[in-house]
Every structure is written in C-alpha cells, then in structure tokens.
C-alpha cells in the first residue's frame, strides 16, 4: 500500500485536469481512477465499491497506472479512447482513434429509426457500428450492411458486432457507390462539420478523432449530396433516409433531399435543435 488514499490521488488528478482545461475534471478523474483499478485488479470495480478504494490507502501500482491515464487526459485525449469504450443506446462499444466517438445526440437517430417499419438497413459511414448494431439488436430478424471508407474502423465495427451478438455485413465503400438494393432504410452520421468550423472544435475532437469522420473539407454538405443523389436507386418505394445533421444545417439539407424528390422532415434533439433529417422517397428505385 502507498501513503496516499484513493481520494487524495483523485484530488491531485482533478487539479491537474482543471489546469489542463478539461470541462468536467472531477467526473473524468473519477472515471479514470475506476479504470486504473480495473487495469490493476483485472476486473471492473462497481460504482458502489469505489468509495472503499477512495477511503483506503492506494494499492501498490495504482498511482503509476493512474498517472499514465491522467497524463493522457491532460493531453485532451477523450476518456472513451483512454478506457477503450463508450456507452451508447443499450450497449457498450469499443472505440479507437480510428472511429468517431458515439455521442448521445446520435441516439435521436436510433430512436427515430425504431419508430419506422423496416427489415433491411444500410448504415453509411458506420464507424464503430454503433447505429447499425443498436438497430439490429432491437430488430433481430432484420438484415443490415455497414459501409465505411476506413478498413480500420470496420475492424472495430466487426468486433463490436461480434461482442454484442449481432449479425451484420461490413465492407469498405464510398457512400452508396457499388451498393445494390433494395433496402428499406438508410441511416448515416456523416462528416458534416465545415472546413472553416474545424478550428472551433474542442481539442478532444480536433486532435484525437479521425478528421475524415468529422469534415468533408468543404461546406459540410457533400455527404448529403452524395446520399440524396443515389438513395432512390437502392431504396424500396417509400423507403426512408435518416441522417444526422449539424444544428444549423436543417434548411440546407432539406433542400438537397427535396431536390431529389424526397418528402423531408426535421427531427429535433432534446435541446430542440435540428438533429436528424428524415427523407422519404415515395417512388423508390429508379
């Protein structure tokens, strides 16, 4: 045992993270302490048992492990990348630097999809597979395809699907190029941040998440143009597209899909901001 208690270690970490500019230093210091204990003990420590470790002298090896984790967070690496996992919808997903970190606002898209009738779904820019896997876990009889331009991201998605017990196909591709239908639903959380907005992102995002999953290097709308241009070719008549959007992009994305013959609605997040565009193509495949 060391002379410092777990609580003292956490207080030191919290101060370091505060200096580093981390938004919620106490929360992150606690999460990282729990992860350090997991690495040391080889098992997760239940939240209600963490207080025992806070009040006791730190176990041998814990300060060194904890210090490495806190150093990573001081460099503004996201907690999910440090721990290697992120909770999303009803499951926990493995995340790496090759994937976008699944975010709570994307659950709006999952909820909207589960309100629709469908038995086949394609997820464009699947990343961790969080959207597709969440949907297929809820619709056991459905079939799904996840497409991503990054093979490294697809490896993560395949691993997540296997761990969660979902059968899905994953393959490399560029949006709907080389995809044949019919599918009843297309979902996507594409790179929608404009190039001139990248400088405003938090370091956790701009330094650590894959740039290609964040921005198209232009106006942030190219993915919607690509999806809208080909959606009817792969959808059944009356098929749906659900795509996450930036909160100021609603009107622009609406016009893109309406120009291709879709009936469009905008779905807000819990803060009332436009978050998902829902497009229906009444006439289906060309």
From TrEMBL:
What is the protein name stated in its UniProt record? Release factor glutamine methyltransferase
Residues annotated for S-adenosyl-L-methionine binding in this entry: 125-129, 148, 175, 189
Report the EC number(s), separated by commas if there are several: 2.1.1.297
Where would I find the Methyltransferase small domain in this sequence?
106-197
Q: Which organism is it from?
A: Paracoccus isoporae
Membership in a protein family:
Belongs to the protein N5-glutamine methyltransferase family. PrmC subfamily.
Pfam families with a match to the protein in the record: MTS (PF05175), PrmC_N (PF17827)
Lineage, top-rank taxon, reads Bacteria
């Amino acid at each position: 045992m060391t002379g410092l208690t777990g609580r003292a270690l956490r207080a030191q970490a919290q101060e370091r993270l505060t200096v580093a500019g981390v938004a919620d230093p106490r929360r992150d210091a606690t999460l990282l302490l729990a992860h350090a204990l997991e690495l040391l003990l080889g098992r997760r420590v239940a939240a209600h048992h963490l207080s025992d470790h806070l009040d006791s002298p730190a176990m041998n090896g814990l300060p060194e492990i904890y210090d490495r984790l806190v150093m990573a967070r001081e460099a503004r690496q996201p907690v999910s990348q440090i721990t290697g996992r992120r909770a999303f919808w009803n499951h926990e997903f493995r995340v790496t630097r090759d994937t976008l970190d699944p975010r709570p606002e994307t659950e709006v898209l999952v909820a909207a999809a589960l309100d629709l009738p469908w038995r086949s779904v394609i997820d464009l820019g699947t990343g961790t597979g969080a959207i597709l896997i969440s949907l297929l876990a809820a619709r056991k009889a459905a079939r799904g395809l996840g497409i991503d331009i990054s093979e490294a991201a697809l490896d993560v998605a395949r691993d997540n699907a296997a761990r969660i017990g979902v059968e899905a196909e994953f393959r490399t591709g560029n949006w709907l190029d080389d995809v044949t239908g019919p599918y009843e639903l297309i979902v996507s959380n594409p790179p929608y941040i404009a190039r001139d907005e990248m400088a405003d992102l938090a370091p956790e995002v701009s330094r650590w998440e894959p740039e290609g999953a964040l921005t198209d290097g232009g106006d942030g709308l190219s993915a919607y143009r690509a999806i809208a241009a080909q959606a009817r070719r792969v959808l059944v008549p009356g098929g749906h597209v659900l795509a996450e959007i930036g909160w100021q992009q609603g009107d622009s994305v609406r016009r893109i899909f309406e120009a291709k013959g879709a009936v469009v609605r905008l779905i807000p997040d819990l803060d009332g901001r436009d978050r998902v565009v829902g497009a229906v193509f009444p006439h289906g495949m060309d």
